[in-house]
Amino acid sequence: MFKEGFNVTLVTSGSKPSFQYAEWILAWQNNRIRLVIVYHPPYSKANPITNSTFLDEFEEDIETVVLCTEPLCIAGDFNLHMDIPSDIYQQRMSNILVTAAHKFPHSCQWSHPGFNCDQSW
Predict the structure, then answer these.
(1) Coil, helix or strand for 44?
(2) Which terminus of the chain, N or C, has fewer Cβ atoms within 10 Å?
(3) For the chain, how many structural domains are there in total?
(4) What's the rounded Cα separation, in Å, for the pair 87 and 95?
(5) How far is CA 2 from CA 5, 6, 46, 52, in A?
(6) Which tens digit of pLDDT belongs to each residue from 74-90?
């Protein structure tokens, strides 16, 4: 990656019961962007945290992040079926983002075609 001219600062990082996150400020020339990276592991015996719990925690945290002054990019592996519009968790995640950011444009790249989706907003 081209590093010259970029200043990258870790704002905060940590974990909640249902996800891990890191929040960064990327600055170059007169530009700044806030990048939030989220990882929500899939439900399993080793990780018995439901998608509902994840969405509750994510919704609570995202409300403070969207108050930042920089343009915001949220990216991560949410392990939600964003490619299935009828999926209740996809609907809730979309509603959280739309509500928090008043119409977040987003793009989707599938990490596992037909299954889960890595997202960036």
Answers:
(1) coil
(2) N
(3) 1
(4) 12
(5) 8, 8, 38, 39
(6) 888 999 888 888 989 98
